[in-house]
């Protein structure tokens, strides 16, 4: 499977940025990516005070390449960059080796 990781450092970011990012994901970003053509799924992850990232899995290499190209071109102006105060430190294509769905199943949610 065709993955993409976009990660921002939270070192030096404004106090409370993690909560601001979580609200943005819940109120805006989740809806943008739900049902997005070419995207299998996206996960937002954070470690408070360290980093925030989007982890994507795409259906085709063309979809991943187009998203990566477009995002990279505007990365400095992206909502995450504006909230954090800096551009991503990592924009990296990768391969997802496997996915397992546990007994309790998959849950799509704008806020966990």
From TrEMBL:
- Name of the molecule in the record: Monooxygenase
Q: What's the domain of life for this entry?
A: Bacteria
> Organism source for this protein?
Nocardioides baculatus
